[in-house]
Amino acid sequence: MHDFAYRKGELHCEETPVSELVKKHGSPLYVYSQSTLEGHFRKLDEALSPLDHLICYAMKANSNLAVMRTLANIGSGFDIVSGGELKRVIAAGGDPKKCTFAGVGKTEEEIAFALRKGIYCFNVESEPELQRIDRVAGRLRKKAPIAVRVNPNVDAGTHAKITTGTYENKFGIPFEEIEGVYQRASKLKNIRLRGVQMHIGSQLTSVTPFEKAVTKAVSLVATLKERHALEFFSIGGGLGIIYNPALASGTAAWWKSPEAKDILTPQSYADRLIPLLKPLAMKIVLEPGRFIAGNAGILVTRVEYVKKTTQKNFVIVDAAMNDLIRPAFYDSFHEIVPLKKKSGKLIESDVVGPICESGDTFCKNRPMPTVKEGDHLAMLSAGAYGSVMSGTYNSRAMAAEVLVQGKRSAVVRARQKVEDIWATETLPKWIS
Ligand code: LLP
Question: Taking the model in full, what pTM does it have?
């Protein structure tokens, strides 16, 4: 569910026509809906209300300060993966005490900084990391709160580049080794064992892999809780969203099928996991990123040319893979719609960017309404892993970002000036 919809044939973000935003701020333009962000957080929060829980929004999905402040204001903590992200939490007015620090490569500086700021927990991914955290904490005369990340070896059935919970992946410590690691960790003087963590992958659209992983983990977690007086169990993020409604809507009969029943919604997720988690009597931590931000953002782009060949209809737009890399990187699907609703026949089109790579393609052979130069299109579900993964390839300045609330809107990241791209570059003395 999201707050982007046609009203009188015009795509709106909440009560604001998107075309007005592009007129004012130019293109390409990221547009976020505040009510969608809040709505997603609240739905999940309410569904989990039978549990003592904390949602730590995985800010890697969208770390714009305004997005983060919106979520911090309604009680969100943050899942961070770098010292830079912790600095952003502080800049956004978030609470470091509600931060979990994940990632396989934490540096000494990052660990020290996080300890000084008093984060909730380090999610530890290896024994060398555990020893490093112990050493740094000793130097600072602090006790470091930690959870070890369990790799449950459950295949999330998602794209290979975003699967994390099998032994093929660099993440976590194999299930069978966990008890030994906690045993050894309990002997480290500067470590406080606080919880257990698990995350199996991203963009999971069915509940079954979560259920499998949690079912596998609960008895281990209960044992560790007893042995080490643990306080929480983090079940990670990974809750998927619907990118392609045509695939998900199906027929009336399909909605009654077992496959449809497995579709992940906050309610189905909660209904199936709460009975497994409740008996643990622990705080349950979640780290969703995409579920909160994904459908809360779109990328608006202008049609520059329509190039017809004997074989193809190319719609060449002013956004490119540097603005939204997901289709090029993961072959991912983003719905693409015109800002002004069009009727008439659909024509199979490739929507492509201006970058000199064939991979700079947003969709291939997709039936689209006929568009012309100067029209605008919106790529939907671009709120997560969109702007944060953008870059300046081809010396293309990064797009502006706008946040909408009802009829109000504000620029929350100015369009980058092209000169800023090389502002930190210098010429060595020997080149005249
Ligand atoms: N926790 C951990 C330990 C993670 O590695 C991730 C995502 C999350 C939480 C949040 O996952 P989410 O709830 O957003 O699925 N760039 C890719 C996604 C990469 C996900 C990386 N880790 C994409 O555009 O699909």
Answer: 0.96
